Amino acid sequence: MKTETPTRSLPSLKHIIVSLKGSKTQDYTFTTMFFIIFSIFVFFAIRPALSTAISLNKQEADLKTLDGKYELLIGQIVQIQNALRLVRDKLYLIDEALPAQPYMNIMMSDIQESAKKNNISIRKIDIHRINLVETEKNLFRSMVVNVELGSTFDDFIKFEKDLILQRRLKKFKTINIGREDVASGSATLNIKAEIEGYYL
Questions:
Q1: Which residues pair with 195 in a beta bridge?
Q2: Range of lowest pLDDT (4-13, 88-97, 106-115, 161-170)
Q3: Percent of the chain at pLDDT above 70?
């Protein structure tokens, strides 16, 4: 004997519409639609606004850092300007200490005046080397003057100090001190020196 299994029929459209009109169903439908619309709103409206806010916060932090660096640089520029204002009247001393040209005649004149002032006889003076080739920036060029002097030790020390204290930048590269060739009984020494002067 065959038993018939009951078949469920699909709800009709009218039945669905009627069920949607029920209060519980309307509450769930409203809630679901609210969350769908809210999600779309969050994605398309709030998310870009949040991204913009985060981006603006980052830009603000970057600008604060940059502002701090600029303030530091401006402070350093003001310090340099103040320092230049203080030494503006003395800038000519730099030109005299490191002239743009060798000015050999001035260098020789400085040596002769110091020798005369300190009772030193110049036996021989000549220019050994002048560096006229352009060097790297911020490096000095130099010229070397060879001198042979007759002097006591004390007078030579005074001559050396006097020459170094002059405005033109110079130094003693080598100094050779020996006795006079002819024994005269005096305290005069035979001194050979290389004096190096600088220019830009």
A1: 145, 172
A2: 4-13
A3: 77
Structure tokens at 26: 């309307």
Q: What pLDDT was estimated at residue 74?
A: 92
How would you write 16-54 as a 3-class SS string? Answer: HHHHHCCHHHHHHHHHHHHHHHHHHHHHHHHHHHHHHHH
The domain over range 99-199 is classified in CATH as 3.30.70.60: yes
Whether 108 contacts 166, CB under 8 Å: no
- For the chain, which residues make up each domain, given as ranges? 13-97, 99-199
The structure's pTM equals 0.52
List, for residues 59-73, the tens digit of each pLDDT value: 888 899 998 999 999
Number of other CB atoms surrounding residue 111 within 10 Å? 23
**How many other C-beta atoms can be found within 10 angstroms of the C-beta atom of residue 106?**
16
3-state secondary structure of 177: strand
